[in-house]
Amino acid sequence: MDSFAISLVNPFKSAVKIPSSIWTLLIGIVLTLICLWYGQNHGLLPTAASDEANFVDGLFNAMITVSLGIFLLVESVLIYSAFRYRRQAGDHEDGPHIEGNVPLEILWTIIPTIIVIGISVYSFEVYNEIGGFSVHGGHEMPMAHKPMEMKGAAMAATMLADIPTSNNDAPNTEVTPQTAEKPSELIVNVAALQYAWIFTYPDTEVSSGELHVPIGQELKLNLTASDVIHAFWVPEFRLKQDVIPGRETTLRFTPRKAGSYTVICAELCGPYHGVMRTQVIVESQADFDKWIQEQLVASTENLHQAVALNSTHLS
Amino acid sequence: MTSAQLQEVEHIPNHAESSSERHWRDYFGFSTDHKVIGLQYLVTSFVFYCIGGVMADLVRTELRTPDVDFVTPEVYNSLFTLHATIMIFLWIVPAGAGFANYLVPLMIGARDMAFPRLNAVAFWMIPPAGLLLISSLVVGDAPDAGWTSYPPLSLVTGEVGEAIWIISLLLLGTSSILGAINFLVTILKMRVPSMGIYQMPLFCWAMLSTSALILISTPVLAGALILLAFDLIAGTSFFNPTGGGDPVVYQHMFWFYSHPAVYIMILPFFGAISEIIPVHSRKPIFGYKAIAYSSLIISFLGLIVWAHHMFTSGIPGWLRMFFMITTMIIAVPTGIKIFSWLATMWGGKIRLNSPMLFAIGFVGTFVIGGISGVMLAAVPFDIHVHDTYFVVAHLHYVLFGGSVLGIFSAIYHWFPKMTGRKMNEFWGKVHFVLTIIGLNMTFLPMHKLGMMGMNRRIAQYDPKFTTLNEICTYGSYILAVSTLPFIINAIWSWLYGEKAGNNPWQGLTLEWQTTSPPAIENFDKLPVLSSGPYDYGMGKQANTETVLGETYPQIESSTV
After folding, report:
1. What is the per-residue pLDDT for A303?
2. CATH of the domain at A213
3. What is the CA radius of gyration of chain B?
4. B328 closest CB neighbour out of A100, A120, A127
């Protein structure tokens, strides 16, 4: 105890007599400003490259703002108490006998309740925006089970307002880049296996170890696994979906920012789980069409290429 | 167990060992004394903590660089699988049971647990289960499908290792269930007559909630493991999709236990902190009933949040919303506890000694895990960070920043009661400072790693994450070093430490009203409460002499 003693002069005792309520108010304002600033400048998330990512980031920014406030409040009360209310040497008296304070306890029950309800409602909204509740197109292609849906982008209708979106209600509609100028969704079949991804474009039967997608095009991935559970994750899209053997899962999203991003397997799938990665390339419609044409030339070899590409990673 | 007779008799020892002196050999044998069993639990689990810690440092050493250059990927997977399994099932859960064993009978004025032999059986399942688990390394086929052991992966990696893992966990689960029955009956039935339920120390409330949770959830884990064993060994298809089984059903069953397991691991230390903070702040606990009931509420809500581990498994949207809301609500009773501890400290006369420093550290770091938990509950954000280092950071802030700091705080606090000697303060503070630095260095950067795109359970990662991973790895080395002053301090103080006296902290709960270490029978005569457990500041100087009343009613438990 004594070996650790730091003789701390309490700054609050010796300060000029400013009413404590004013200090509290000032500290509160400063903390709020810090939280608001940090909520917009935390730099903790990678580029937002899909429409969905912007919604998720908005939710995260709100949560980190509130969280930082709670964190600073708790830590400052904790550290302040530890120094301010340290037992003075030779003082063997007890502290005041205070067993509780019902209004205060009600307050710190209600405020967190309001905060978590607020976050829940906001999450609900965001989840709805990114298409978590959309019902259309949900029951196609059962394998052993009903497919489990993680539907993205219900806002496709608004993004592509000039296009009739009725084919959302007709699952499995053959929409090919050739027949429709701007199809409302591009379907890609994704096969996950230890330790590679194979992307097949059913319209053209092009297969590739990389995922190429046009900007602003709503995408529907049908994901299947042949061995163990994998998970499709692109951090820049903020979307993740488990790929489960014996059932088909789907993922919808709309890439918005050109670039090359990493597709990561997020569910432990074996010793080489860490190298089960590939690229998703978000490019213009013209580049995408060009790529498809290139692939069509040698489409039969692509599957082998995909596997071969991965085996070099393994070594 | 069958014939519990209640009869007034003269002081008759009801222990198997009737000798009045404790022999060192008792600690290595099948003792039925709850204090011996408590220490057996604590020492055994600490040994496993060291083993699990070495594994953690091996994992971190591999992750210091982006490439696989320290162990093979197969060994790496076994290391993190065993690390998690050991830390959960052989360190934190049994450490909680150890404190409960030692403290609950003393705190409620009982002479032992309700079922002393069952108690000993529960403990003696742990060392063989732990040795079995570690023996898988020697066999050369250690389990490597993660501590969650999701099929079908767990069915296609090494069969022997997976079978060992299942058997070991079944044993540990059974031990936990037996312990929970014992705590429940002891707390409800064996309190001294003068102790009503609201005079009960909060640690007992926490153990009541924990035990109820164990009894409800652990059998479901056993069910999942037995079905998994059938799939593994007998080739059935409960979870194996190649035969039409459903791997997601396993996830539901697994998390029905394994989420409550988080509360099983943290509630006992919520209870311990609720004991430690008032004693060293010299103030009554703030909001006794709110803290007591928040434990029960956490225990109940803990049962209906499991699927938040499965937000990317493809469960229906409405179900995700249900589990999101229940998960969010748990923050409220947890917040009540944190604010109550702060209010207990506020205005007190705080002794900044090792137990109190660790308690302050507990509150300060647990709150980070609590806040990131609320973030993870939000489905859209969870979809991004699920199975990433953000989750690794979150769970370590809860389990290390929470449970482990709670364990250390409790050890420093009750060490004088258990041994009759105080631990060295200087080295306790060195331990504290190193632990806090190491813990934050190791786990804080992981939040950013996860959000930026580093997934968990990987041996090789994107080179852009190298710097943050190096910080994490060096932090983990500091944590490893931080354990050394503690171990030396504990052993040295046990042998040569300053004599503590019966009540060195002037505590008011009953365990401080007997000798240190307590006599084999705990109390000579039935203690009578002269004050509530937290009546500080009422002019009642803590009495070092036991308030003695009548003799104990003799309870003979003939079968167990």
Report:
1. 52
2. 2.60.40.420
3. 23
4. A120
Q: What is the pLDDT of residues B299-354, one digit of tens each?
A: 999 999 999 999 998 888 889 999 999 999 999 999 999 999 999 999 999 999 99
Q: Cα separation of A285 and A216, whole Å?
A: 9
- Do A302 and A194 lie in one domain? The reply is yes
| pLDDT at position A135 | 47
Does the CB of A229 have a partner CB in chain B at under 8 Å? Answer: yes
In a domain, A41, yes or no: yes
Does residue A215 sit in the same domain as residue A66? no
Chain A residue numbers touching B462 (CB-CB < 8 A): 262
Interface test with B, best of A68, A108, A110 (most B CBs within 10 A): A108
DSSP structure string for B13-43: --SS---SSPPGGGGGS----HHHHHHHHHH
Spatial CB neighbours of A290, under 8 Å, sequence gap ≥ 6: none
Take residue B14 and report the two structure tokens written for it: 């009801």
Predicted confidence (pLDDT) per residue in A80-132, tens digit: 999 999 998 888 888 899 899 999 999 999 999 999 999 999 999 999 988 87
pTM of the model: 0.87
Residue A155 forms contact with B (CB below 8 Å): no
Q: Which residue segment(s) compose the domain that A226 sits in?
A: 148-314
Section B265-271 average pLDDT: 96
Asked whether the beta carbons of B560 and B118 are under 8 A apart, the reply is: yes
Edge-to-edge strand list for the sheet holding A230-234: A211-214, A277-283, A259-265, A230-234, A239-243
Q: How far apart are the first and last CA of chain B?
A: 5
Of B244, B317, B534, Cβ closest to residue A133: B317
Judge if A188 and A123 occupy the same domain.
Answer: no
Terminal CA-to-CA distance of chain A, rounded, Å? 57
- Quick one: which H or E segment has residue B554? strand B553-556
**A124 in the same domain as A232:** no
Q: For chain B, which domains are there?
A: 33-556 (1.20.210.10)
Number of domains composing chain A: 2
Q: Are residues A155 and A289 in the same domain?
A: yes
The average confidence (pLDDT) of chain B is 90
Q: Specify the pLDDT at position A299.
A: 55
Q: Which of A95, A179, A150 lies closest to B281, judged by CA?
A: A95
Written as six digits, the tokens of B540 are: 């009642």
**Residue A97 falls within a domain, yes or no?**
no
Same domain, A122 and A152: no
Look at residue A34 and tell me if it is in a domain.
yes
**Pair (A33, A165) in one structural domain:** no
- In sequence order, what E strands does A84-210 have? 148-150, 186-193, 196-201, 206-208
Closest of A74, A78, A85, A75 to residue A10, by C-alpha: A85
Residue A2 resides in a domain: no
Q: How far is CA B124 from the centre of its chain?
A: 18
pLDDT tops 80 at residue A162: no
Asked if A30 and A178 sit in the same domain, the reply is no
Test mutation, B277, B312, B326, B375, chain A, max A CBs within 10 A: B312
